[in-house]
Amino acid sequence: MSPILLLILFSIFSGLLICVVDRKWAPHLSLATSVISLLYYLFLLIDFEPSGGAAHLFQANWIPGINASFSVALDAQNVLLLLLSFLVLPMGILASWSDTVQRNREYYALMSWGSAALTGFFASQNPFSFYLFFELALIPFYLIVLLYGGAYRRPAVFKFFLYTVFGSFLMLAAIIYLYAVVPDTDINWATAVAEKLGPDNQLWIFGALFIAFAIKSPLFPFHTWQADLYSEGDRPAVMVIAGVLSKMGVFGFIRFYDFVPSALESMRYVIIPLCIIGILYGALVAWRQTVMTRILAYSSLSHMGMIAAALFSGTMVGMQGSLYQMFTHGILAASLFFVVDAIIRRTENTSVYGSAGLAQANPRLSVYFFIIVLASIGLPLTSGFIGEFYMLWGLTQTNIWYGAFAGVSIILGAIYMLRFYQKSVFGEMQSDKVRNFGHLILAEDYVLVVVVILVLSFGFFPGTWMDLTHQAFAQLIQK
Amino acid sequence: MNSEFLIHLILWAPLVGFAINGIFGSSFSGKTAGFIACLGPLTGFVSTVLLWSGFDQTIQINYYRWFGTPDSFSVDFSVMVDQLTLLMLFIVTGVGTLIHLYSVGYMEHDKGFVRFMSYLNLFIFSMLLLVMGSNLVMLFAGWEGVGLCSFLLIGFWYKNPDYNKAARKAFVMNRIGDLGFMLGIFLLGLEFRTLDIPTLLSSMEHIESGDPKIILITILLFIGVTGKSAQIPLFTWLPDAMAGPTPVSALIHAATMVTAGIYLVARMSGLFNLAPFTLDVIAWVGLATAFVAATIALRQNDIKKVLAYSTVSQLGFMAVALGCAAYSTAIFHVMTHAFFKALLFLGAGSVIHGLHGEQDISKMGGLRNAMKSTHLVFLIGTLAIAGVPPLAGFFSKDEILAAAFSHSIWYFVILALTAVLTAWYMFRLYFATFHGSYRGSKETEAGIHESGLVMLAPLFVLAFLSVVGGFAGMPETISSKHLVSDFLKPVVADHAHSVSHSFEYILWGVTLVLLVLIVWLTNKMYSVNSAEVFRSGSGWVGRILEGKYYLDEIYETLISGPLRSTGTWFKNVMDPGVIDQAVKLPGLVFRNAGVALRPLQSGIISWYMISIVLGLLAMIYLFLF
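Above: the input entities. Below: the structure tokens describing the complete assembly.
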């Protein structure tokens, strides 16, 4: 059996198992299965050959009538994102350990199924599987937020759901149209479609896909569901949403890249400026926020804008940076939510001012936090720098003004992240909650040490991964 | 010893020190931590001396391939040591070691002692990356690294919100410059397909002077320089950086980090020589910076602020030298400035330490009796920076003036005027601090004490260097050998003209006369018993100078304020009120449509019957006609 299919089935099966075991074992079982998945995936990576095309391919005839197949595999484009989703899931589960009373068996089962859907999504090799998992991934996280979120979760999650589903329908329509144009979904489908579609039709298709993916990422101005969901959602689930689900949209652009090449070419000069507006807009709003989760939401908006802009630059370097940054940002966004969760749980205050003096109360957490902050503002020798360097290079290569304006985010990023850090960590201790902050629990220590190791090793040794991202786009760019 | 091994030692020793103190420091005694911290730069310094003694050619070490993309660029994690690097290594590790030693005494009672020492080590490591990096990305990594350490050290006393603000300001102002630097790197890479510095410089040969692309690139790089080396318009962070403990001011904001920009231009001199326009820009920015900062220093009463503005002004001098394509002169001044400015800052630290934190010179005075050693070294520092022959500052400043003169009379006039101002504010500072009588409160007077040996020893070494350091670069009129520029010749492409001997003699004569006059005047004005003379003036010139030309206020009004309110407006109005409303619009339409159509579902059977009949009639009508 294909190991990728095995990973998907394993997550589904472990979700079922979690449902039936004694409820006190559910968190442990959930953690164990997610770590097993991660280790097995790492084992797969050892002899993965990125230049060899799709590896561990599983293909099955799914809807014979329209010749749609179900196919998943490991390839150069998805290898980092699969790694991301396997890394973030155990982090999220460990974050949830602080309160396993509220979170019952169903919670962990949903997490497992969410993981299965994400694996399937990134691994999918054609638009039909892609669409299937795109929709499937929504359901577990929708349910988790609905069942375990904060007080105002209902409107937040409702907006999120409707908005995303609206985008999905556009995507579905686009895919059906593509099928109508060339009813043959084999490996060269994209090329055939691209040849047959006129530039005008390409524009329509591109428009539909763009809205779907822009909502999912989200990109400015389709982002208004984001801050509410990030603040009201159950934070371990938000870690996965901010870290992994937010990458689905941009990943979609990569997957559909060669269906609509001429539309991409002509729309580049509209989309990149729009993304840059989003970068600056997100950064400015993040600067003025005082609620920690909202700062992170708008910071994500800004980062995702950059990732999309670099992808649309159409340059090899920019696209490589975009893919690399998707991974890095995923890790960083998830770990920032992890840190913020650790703080809010103890201080019961979501404001940045609520934890002033943390540096004295818990220096250890403050140091971890600082390293993550540095990586997210792209300090050299951290993972954040590499992606940012590549992305800005690519944008500059397209047009120096793109590079200059998008580059303003390295200034604004420093402003809002350092402000965030200083307000929430430095200063005098104000409240007793901070004074009695207490130690980190072992699970928190483990997660944060792993994150720091990741941040530094992906900053010091990005070479192999960068070659991999080069493989990911080598064929796309040649066309 | 193997020179590659020495380079490994120089680069990694401070990082190891940082790691040891950073991870295990909490369980160390202060002495152990201090010892480990000092060992880092000391190892570096000893290795530098050994390396220098056996140095014959550029050494490059490739650790591994960092990242790269075929056909675009390939960046190695690599370092190199040539003459320019070697000279910088002497400054960084030498002055760095002294400041580490001094800090052990200065910070011993601080609760964050270990943290402080480990930050210093991290700073040295970043600075070493910067001067040793053999490609622009390595250099940039060090460049950002010193920015980070500067942030950590300025905001070292993190409980104080003002200090935090100063730290953030330093980082952000630097980042503005860094954006320029980064864009410059991109354009260079796109143009030449490499970021390796020696390869880049050797591919400059077929480029014509004045190529617009090169001008753009050099201007972008220079924007980076204005951030790091505190030039107009980005210099305002440096005076605020005095929030950090005094050794920080000495190490970072005088002797090393701020010279990074000067180093960068000297390092890329082959590139800058192709852009005469950029050189003019650099010279003018340098002139403006030197002059403006010197005038502000005239009216400051905080001992550290005076020195901070003096640093900005001296960096302006260096920029002028760069602008005149006298790169080795600029580096020479970097060196002498590192000696006397570190000396002055550490001397000021000793004064502040002795007065239990007092920094206001209007509350000092007469300290020459209570702090004899500090007084002596501070005097030497003052003489050196004022350019009294034959101290270090005299030779390097003389060389810059000569270069300016050979370039343009205007450069010379402005710079000479600034040199006069320099002497004025420095002697004002000196007399106000050490002469006259003590103007502080009686209680504090009893507590005045001289600093301990661990703080004084580095001061004596620096004082010695401030006296003799200038002999490394004597003008032609005295000696035919200019040690610094001869040493740097293979790697730095100077383009400066020399001046006639008679000009030199006139310059020295005038300098001496002016200095005597300034000393006499400042002594009369500021060796006083009352603080009257330090009160703020009533004239508008005085007010502008005291207000630092209101640059911070101008930036706040024109840039940060509007940006902040834009952000607030986006957050409060644009996001919830416009974008989100637009998203909700379809929902609203459907809901209202529902409300409007609801009466149709009235539940009255007869009404449904009538509707059916009417509908049928309508359909029949449509079909038949």
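Note for the figure: Chain A has a mean pLDDT of 90.
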